[in-house]
């Protein structure tokens, strides 16, 4: 998987394209070919107004032969960097890379009590990510995921605030705001800092070997994103692991600012972080948990998933047994003292239930009072309650978590709500195109319906004619160091293990027979417990379901569509009778839940997915849409 950009040229050639009026047209054309979708007018305005201000300085410093990559993207994410300048370092002769973030802001000021800023155009005057923090994150991603840069290059970054004065920028100096960014590698310049900007360019770049180094960068191998569970213990117990970008970092910084404000006596505030699969919700939660606890803040992580919470506990316990106490469940706060915690991180909040328990005398409701809503208990438990959710992941009867529910409950409790929407994709090869394709396929969030699949160079998608072909393909990925799992809709019975502990091959499709994952809470006959199915290598030989796959990720996802959702001439048809999950097949919203289920299963893969449907017509639909068919 190679990195790419919308436009590549020397600074001199880029200047010619600008003066001839060709640049914007070329960028629009490249956007349509490489990315597609609607192009934001504000982005075009930035191209027109900001790029020339950097190109002019490159020419004035005799760096016309330095290479400029416009809208640079690496395969792990769909985030694009405004400009990446490539040349050689004047001192060492090594590759030198400078990331430039352009801002058209005329004014900016610090947000009191946080490391964020206020700037023009923010909805409802909400604080925004500090631009130096933003560009520093881009630098960190380049270093972390492109080994060539860590080993053989100098990488620095600059914020180009070409409409703001130095006096304005002085109010948000990184050192004054406590940002942990090395000033040698991260700088910010305003419109009256042109000479300082030029000195920084001369210090970092020389034109020699610029074309050669650029080709090396574009062709350099990119490491895949690591799974959350592989490094969660390090993140929680020791240090920050994941580079957070754009809205991820904004959410992280906003929550930390809310904690500071709460300790200064500010009114209580809830934070809602919304995003689809692969946008980094759980990464944000885990990074916040580790950072806050290391600062002495009382923070706890909570979910409604036994598998997810148990896996998190098992992973951190190996490093620090005490850290296990940092992970809890939504129903753990029925008797919590008001604001007992500083921060409660409610991950996968779409899995909220109406209440944490049934009304009975054993739970303290012998006077007939109705149990309070679970979301109310969670808001009550912490000074800063944080909810991270994706409403399209409602897959079980009784789950009620939604943005509206949280807003309404908090408002009724007199608690302010701040919402942050995550846009960028870090799973599925950093390809929002795949997630959108799956959602269109299943009729979720769009009226377009199934669309033709256009192959991507960063994500593999196939259809298999049989589950055996799927399994064989995924098995070939294991010796290559990848993780792979097969998950299925709940369309087959789930038997108890045999007397000797052996699992029963409940899933039978022609001559292919496999067992569901173990329901045990410990390893039996080498088969991992349900909580470790997605992460233990021995989990490959069992088929997972929504209960063991949701919240997890692996490199390659195999998805078996059962007959509870099939394609007909009239569109999708859901069939309760084909579904064996008694907790779902009687739900009034069964059709919605089963579509959501397959969306979740199909978006677990970070590098690729294989689809197979037991229904021949549905399987043919996948192939007819242009999904490559695996050879038998």
From TrEMBL:
InterPro entries the UniProt entry points to: AAA+_ATPase, P-loop_NTPase, SLFN_3-like_DNA/RNA_helicase
Originating species: Streptosporangium longisporum
Name of the protein: DUF2075 domain-containing protein
SMART domains named in the record: AAA
Domain AAA+ ATPase intervals: 267-411
């Amino acid at each position: 998987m190679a990195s790419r950009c919308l436009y590549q040229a020397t600074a001199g050639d880029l200047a010619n394209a600008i003066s001839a009026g060709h640049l914007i047209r070329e960028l629009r054309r490249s956007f349509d070919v490489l990315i597609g979708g609607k192009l934001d007018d504000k982005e075009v305005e930035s191209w027109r107004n900001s790029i020339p201000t950097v190109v002019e300085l490159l020419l004035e410093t005799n760096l016309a032969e330095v290479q400029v990559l416009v809208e640079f993207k690496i395969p792990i994410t769909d985030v694009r960097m405004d400009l990446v300048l490539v040349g050689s370092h004047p001192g060492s002769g090594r590759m030198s890379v400078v990331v430039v973030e352009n801002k058209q802001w005329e004014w900016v000021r610090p947000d009191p009590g946080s490391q964020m800023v206020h700037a023009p155009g923010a909805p409802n005057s909400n604080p925004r990510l500090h631009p130096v923090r933003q560009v520093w994150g881009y630098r960190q991603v380049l270093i972390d995921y492109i080994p060539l840069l860590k080993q053989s290059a100098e990488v620095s970054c600059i914020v180009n605030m070409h409409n703001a004065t130095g006096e304005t920028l002085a109010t948000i100096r990184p050192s004054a705001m406590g940002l942990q960014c090395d000033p040698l590698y991260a700088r910010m310049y305003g419109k009256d800092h042109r000479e300082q900007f030029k000195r920084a360019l001369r210090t970092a770049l020389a034109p020699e070997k610029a074309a050669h180094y650029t080709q090396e960068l574009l062709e350099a191998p990119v490491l895949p994103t690591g799974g959350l569970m592989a490094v969660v213990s390090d993140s929680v117990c020791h240090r920050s692991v994941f580079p957070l970008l754009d809205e991820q970092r904004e959410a992280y910084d906003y929550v930390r600012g809310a904690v500071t404000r709460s300790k200064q006596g500010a009114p209580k505030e809830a934070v809602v972080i919304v995003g689809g699969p692969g946008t980094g919700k759980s990464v944000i939660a885990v990074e916040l948990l580790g950072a806050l606890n290391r600062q002495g803040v009382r923070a706890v992580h909570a979910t409604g998933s036994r598998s997810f919470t148990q896996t998190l506990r098992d992973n951190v316990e190996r490093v620090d047994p005490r850290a296990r106490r940092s992970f809890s469940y939504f129903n753990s706060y029925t008797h919590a003292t008001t604001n007992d915690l500083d921060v409660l991180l409610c991950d996968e909040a779409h899995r909220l239930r109406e209440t944490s328990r049934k009304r009975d005398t054993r739970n303290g409701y012998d006077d007939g009072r109705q149990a309070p809503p679970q979301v109310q208990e969670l808001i009550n438990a912490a000074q800063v309650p944080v909810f991270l959710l994706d409403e399209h992941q409602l897959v079980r009867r009784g789950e009620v978590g939604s943005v509206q529910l949280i807003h309404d409950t908090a408002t009724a409790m007199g608690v302010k709500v701040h919402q942050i929407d995550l846009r960028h994709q870090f799973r599925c090869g950093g390809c929002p195109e795949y997630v959108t394709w799956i959602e269109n396929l299943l009729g979720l969030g769009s009226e377009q319906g199934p669309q033709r699949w256009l192959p991507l160079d960063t994500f593999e998608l196939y259809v298999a004619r049989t589950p055996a072909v799927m399994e064989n393909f995924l098995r070939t990925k294991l010796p290559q160091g990848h993780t792979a799992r097969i998950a299925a809709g709940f369309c087959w019975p789930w038997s108890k293990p045999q007397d000797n502990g052996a699992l029963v091959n409940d899933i039978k499709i022609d001559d292919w027979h496999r067992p569901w994952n173990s329901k045990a809470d410990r390893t039996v006959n080498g088969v991992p417990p349900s909580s470790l199915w997605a992460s233990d290598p021995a989990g490959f030989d069992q088929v997972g379901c929504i209960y063991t796959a949701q919240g997890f990720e692996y490199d390659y996802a195999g998805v078996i569509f059962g007959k509870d959702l099939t394609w007909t001439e009239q569109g999708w048809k859901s069939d309760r009778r084909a579904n064996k999950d008694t907790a779902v097949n009687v739900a009034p919203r069964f059709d919605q839940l089963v579509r959501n289920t397959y969306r979740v299963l199909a978006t677990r893969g970070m590098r690729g997915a294989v689809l197979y449907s037991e229904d021949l017509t549905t399987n043919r639909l996948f192939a007819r849409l242009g999904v490559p068919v695996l050879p038998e």
